[in-house]
């Protein structure tokens, strides 16, 4: 169970971890005073690019919403994530939201996808479109 997550950067010489919020780190340590803990380092993947988001939103999603008769592309986007994300991001890694007395897993925001996750999601959507006989134009500048 993860109880805290803090971001930082390891210096070029590999000797120091510079935390983005030292006060938040100290507060976490204070909350766990006297307890055994385990520290894990995870390399942060690069977030999806504006070009990926732009192509998906302006070309792919708009075209598919029109072809499939969705009045609201936002609703289609949500349904595409529900359909394709479990194969890309395991359900137990989806964010938890407090709803009523319990916590519920919710569909991740595409703003939080890494480049790799966004690429896999986009490819799954493009494959679905191709299976439906819909030709989606490639991004500008690609062939």
Explain the overall architecture:
This protein has two domains: 1-44, no CATH class; 50-131, no CATH class. The mean pLDDT is 89. Helix 2 packs parallel to helix 4 (115-131). The protein is mainly alpha-helical. The protein has helices at residues 22-31, 50-68, 73-84, 115-131, and strands spanning 8-10, 17-19, 96-99, 102-105. It has four helices and four strands; from the N terminus they run E-E-H-H-H-E-E-H. A two-stranded antiparallel ribbon has the order 1-2. It has a two-stranded antiparallel sheet with strand order 3-4.
Q: How would a crystallographer describe the biggest sheet?
A: 2 strands, antiparallel
Strand order of the largest sheet: 1-2
Q: How many angstroms separate the termini?
A: 45 Å
Determine the mean pLDDT: 89
Number of strands: 4
Summarize the structure.
The chain has 143 residues and is mainly alpha-helical. 41% of the residues lie in helices and 10% in strands. The longest helix is centred in the middle third of the chain and has 19 residues, at 50-68.
Secondary-structure map:
Blueprint (H helix, E strand, L loop, with lengths): L7 E3 L6 E3 L2 H10 L18 H19 L4 H12 L11 E4 L2 E4 L9 H17 L12
Helix pairs in contact: 2-4
